[in-house]
Amino acid sequence: MELSLYFSKLDLSLLKVIQAISKSSIEIEECIRYSALKGLHGVHSNEQNSSGDIQKKLDVISNDIMINHLTQTKCCSILLSEENDAPIYLQKEYSEKNYVVAFDPLDGSSNIDCNAPIGTIFSISSHNKEQVLTKGNQIVVAGYVLYGPSTELLLSVNNTVERFVLSIKKQYIHIGKVLLNGKKKIYSINEANSSAWNSDMKAYINNYKINGTKYTSRYIGSMVGDVHRTLLYGGMFCYPADKKNPNGKLRLLYEAYPMAKLLEDAGGKAIVGNNSKQRILDVILKEIHQRTPILLGSIEEVNKYEQVLQKKLKNIKYKI
Length: 320
Ligand code: AFP
Hints:
It is built from 7 helices and 16 strands.
């Protein structure tokens, strides 16, 4: 069934916002698919965006496409993009029918030029009168689009994760619900940073290695690709705090909140790590470009990290 039909019972304004994101992603997909032929590889300029990343041409194009479609809905009050320094205020008057949309228009963009998976990550939240967004718990819909061998849209609506695939006719077709029940033994982390990890992370990851060949390692370096595999196959994905990045690398609002919502709604878990069991969705947003460490995956795998913390509390020497 096609996306709009599938969600035909949703609140109309919310549906319009979802449709705007799906339309944007179809345009972005078109740009990505032919990027090498259209001269869309490479950097936009050597200037860094608000998050300190160098913007690629496709980062800028994708951002414009998203802002354009979301503005046209007239159902959004505030747009928060990873590519913009400040919020974009679209409605002067507060109305509970308006939504706040936060997005990373093209995540993993360092993978564009080598044709590896990349994605758009987003969340739609009800408008809190006082503040832009205080916690991930205000998210009504979270999702991502994966531009890979095929283009997929995953959406968490009413606490259920739905999976759509883009058809030849450029329509998103529902192919099923996602429940994190895969049992593949995979750990996913950038091991090049291991010398800078803190002792909790060293102990946790070491547990995966001492089990002989029971576990395998997979790391794309594109959060959408790594999280998608985790949702479908199981295992865990982590971008921890380390000595180089004491707050981690990933952005709370644009990357961590939406992925945490999807993981939890699919039956998994998403926590801060970094000596803390705190749920990502409970972390208070103090600044829109704030970074956070993150550990997500099946309950079984995330609990293994919590066991490391327990041992630490009891002062049991863990193996590093
Ligand atoms: P880019 O957008 O610069 O490619 O960064 C991608 C990303 O934000 C996220 O998608 C990855 O999980 C993470 O960074 C990879 O970071 P490392 O290259 O440091 O492992």
